[in-house]
From TrEMBL:
The gene is mprF. InterPro entries: L-PG_synthase/AglD. This is Phosphatidylglycerol lysyltransferase. It is an enzyme of class 2 (transferase). It comes from Companilactobacillus versmoldensis DSM 14857 = KCTC 3814. One of its GO terms (biological process) is response to antibiotic. Its main location: membrane. GO terms for molecular function: phosphatidylglycerol lysyltransferase activity. NCBIfam families: flippase-like domain. It is found in: Cell membrane. The chain crosses the membrane at residues 41-66, 125-144, 156-179, 230-255, 262-283, 303-330.
Length: 351
């Protein structure tokens, strides 16, 4: 990690700590301590397990899209560390913009071609955004009355989040199916936007954007021919998101809040994902806490229980991923050992 990234990490930790202090400043410490002592640590452990499995399934998605017959065998840590690295850089960069480049670097450390890796990551991103959108639509259909009841005050933020997802997916699908038109459109849009930059810098940004479009289109041609691979990745992404959505349900159970409906909780978590996507602050900090407090206050009667639930949920889904991401960066895959073991095995078989 660069000094800039380390600084951003501590800034986000400090900002989040400040938000929790502000929310808990009026709560009696003894009441908070009493609520903590009554925690059901079994369900809290299940919540941690759920997020770890979510990362594991995301690694499976990446492996599914990346793996080809002629490839060497990827070890589990090569794939598992990539979602962890993404979690870290999503958490410390505005609009989670650092996750994609960080994953790319991680894959290139595994000697995977940069062009291929970036294209697969873009396809993984398209599938992820698509499944988030599908989950939102299904939640609206299945639980419309509940959504209208609980989310009327946050409807504008949810709408903005939905628009961002739709625009993102639409643009990437346009590259896949309207390649030439999309390139011309990007050039027409970027040129006036970049007008105030120096010509050299303007041309650099434009060419970089066009190369990204070319790379994504090339990989999309391959994946469009491998529909089974895409379908499998989409199903796995749904499972990945479900495991993530269930974390808050298990946190509530750990607080002995049993008068809850699983579907209602999952719907609320889906809405929080939509809301936090519009906040430019890294990790949606501020927006995530506010939306959680607004949506789950009806389920948790005590103020200390609500703040503790918010902290535990945020720790598991945000801070825990950051800490694991640091481990993912420090513990690089041992490729030399893999090659040595493969040669030793081949020598043994020939002998």
């Amino acid at each position: 990690m660069s000094r800039k990234n380390i600084f951003a990490l501590f800034v986000m930790l400090g900002l989040s700590a400040g938000i929790f202090w502000w929310e808990a400043r009026k709560i009696n410490f003894e009441s908070m301590l009493s609520t903590f002592k009554s925690l059901n640590f079994f369900w809290l452990g299940v919540a941690f397990l759920s997020i770890l499995l979510s990362y594991a399934v995301e690694a499976w998605v990446l492996h599914t899209l990346l793996k080809k017959k002629e490839d060497r065998r990827f070890n589990w840590w090569e794939m598992y560390r990539i979602p962890l690295i993404q979690a870290l850089f999503n958490a410390i960069t505005p609009f989670s913009s650092g996750g994609q480049p960080a994953q790319l670097v991680g894959l290139m450390q595994s000697k995977i071609d940069g062009g291929r890796a970036s294209s697969v990551l873009l396809m993984k991103f398209v599938i992820y955004q698509g499944m988030v959108l599908i989950n939102f639509v299904v939640a609206m259909i299945v639980s419309f009355e509940n959504v209208a009841k609980h989310f009327s005050g946050l409807s504008l933020m949810i709408l903005f989040g939905l628009v961002i997802h739709v625009v993102t997916i639409s643009f990437l699908l346009m590259i896949m199916y309207y390649y030439s038109f999309t390139k011309k459109m990007v050039q027409a849009v970027l040129k006036p936007i970049l007008f105030f930059l120096k010509e050299e810098k303007r041309e650099q940004i434009l060419q970089s954007s066009l190369r990204g479009i070319d790379s994504f289109y090339k990989e999309s041609l391959v994946l469009k021919q491998e529909k089974q691979k895409v379908i499998k990745a989409a199903i796995l992404t749904f499972l990945q998101l479900l495991l993530y959505y269930l974390v808050v349900y298990f946190v509530l159970l750990s607080l002995n809040v049993h008068h809850i409906n699983l579907l209602d909780v999952v719907v609320m978590q889906i809405m929080i994902v939509m809301i936090t996507s519009i906040f430019p602050v890294p990790g949606g900090t501020g927006g995530a806490e506010v939306s959680f407090k607004a949506l789950f206050s009806g389920f948790i009667p005590s103020a200390s229980g609500l703040i503790l639930a918010m902290f535990l949920w945020r720790f598991i889904t945000y801070f825990f991923g950051m800490f694991l991401g640091v481990i993912g960066i420090l513990k690089k895959p041992k490729l030399k050992k893999i090659k040595h073991d493969a040669k030793a095995k081949l020598w043994s078989e020939n002998k």
